[in-house]
Amino acid sequence: MTASPTDDDIATPPAAEAAVMDPAPRPHATAEEVEAARKDTKLAQVLYHDWEAETYDDKWSISYDERCIDYARGRFDAVAGDQPLPYERALELGCGTGFFLLNLMQGGVAKTGSVTDLSPGMVKVAMRNAENLGLPVDGRVADAETIPYEDNTFDLVVGHAVLHHIPDVEKSLREVLRVLKPGGRFVFAGEPTTVGNFYARWLGRATWEATTTVTKLPFLADWRRPQEELDESSRAAALEAVVDIHTFDPTDLENMAKSAGAEQVHAATEEFAAALLGWPVRTFEAAVPQEKLGWGWGRFAFGGWKTLSWVDEKILRHVVPRGFFYNVMITGVKPGN
User: Fold this and answer.
1) Closest CA to 94 of 47, 143, 21, 61
2) DSSP H stretches of helix in 117-226
3) What does the pLDDT look like over 271-284, one tens digit per residue?
4) Exposure pattern of 18-36 as b/e (b: 16+ CB <10 Å)?
5) No. of helices (H) and no. of strands (E), the chain
6) Coil, helix or strand for 279?
7) Would the CA dihedral through 247, 252, 258, 260 be positive or negative?
8) pLDDT tens digits, residue range 14-27?
9) How far apart are CA 269 and CA 275, in angstroms?
């Protein structure tokens, strides 16, 4: 088990890899740094994700229990299909707080893991989550375009909502294939489609404007977050617009993976009706005080998402073009074996 991470030394890789002193998180970006990040995508990635790291799990209702284990395993199975499990060693690229890999490990997909992210803050939280769960995981602050592991190291590489942050996606996929063992598989999920991103952003903006306007009314004042919190959310949203670089057409993403050298490439999409509910719900949650949203709200939000996901899976995927769904997932295999 890896030792508990500190700000100055996020994690120590296994003995076969050189120990590296990772940079410390920077959780508070100034207005000047935000302005500079508009012209520097990778700086924006670090500032935004360091900023979000300590509250990210709460913001996106991430947990490490049955609910999210089932969700992560469901995404893996939906695109990869039946696989011989568990994989011996897995890497999560752009790990965030470790949501995808840690829940996949708990779901029996991999025995040991490594997490990497450009954000020191995210790696720190992911390692803390892994330690709390008792999972054998090491972590590194790393650029997805230059993965700091040797060739043929991993049996599986995964990622969730990471490819759309990477400037050169094909270069990163080539790196993924390099660190995979021959016959190893990658699975990426949670990427925005081009059409889905359009309506999700529109719904999010409309919900934010409506909520922050209505809560200015005196009789709804206790439903309004303090102005400094709203201002900080707006600054975070400004950075988010910089860090979200790509959207994907599913066929184009498949072709990109094939061009990188992958075999058995397959993309699948999900969340159409579910996204039409999910984005207003998430935005509303970000705009009002958390204490106002009790158990009943959580039951409505999760239950509504599950119901509409069922409608998407059982009905709409047969009649709606796959590019209209919000999320795209992709898998492929490194040639060999």
Assistant:
1) 143
2) 120-133, 169-179, 194-214
3) 999 999 999 998 99
4) eeeebebbbbebeeebbee
5) 12, 7
6) helix
7) negative
8) 434 434 567 766 66
9) 12
Residue 154 burial by Cβ neighbours in a 10 Å radius (0-12, 13-18, 19+):
buried
- Reduced to 3 states (helix: H, G, I; strand: E, B; else coil), residue 117 is strand
Summarised one tens digit per residue, pLDDT across range 103-125 is: 999 999 999 999 999 999 999 99
DSSP class of residue 146?
S
* 266 burial via Cβ count (<10 Å: 0-12, 13-18, 19+): middle
* Main-chain dihedrals φ then ψ at residue 69, nearest 5 degrees: -60, -45
Looking from the CA of 143 toward its CB, the CA atoms found within 13 Å total 8
CA 76 to chain centre: 14
Q: How many Å apart are CA 241 and CA 48, to the nearest integer?
A: 10
What residues pair up with 38 in beta bridges, in sequence order? Answer: none
Share of the chain above pLDDT 70, in %: 89
* pLDDT tens-digit series, residues 172-204: 999 999 999 999 999 999 999 999 999 999 999
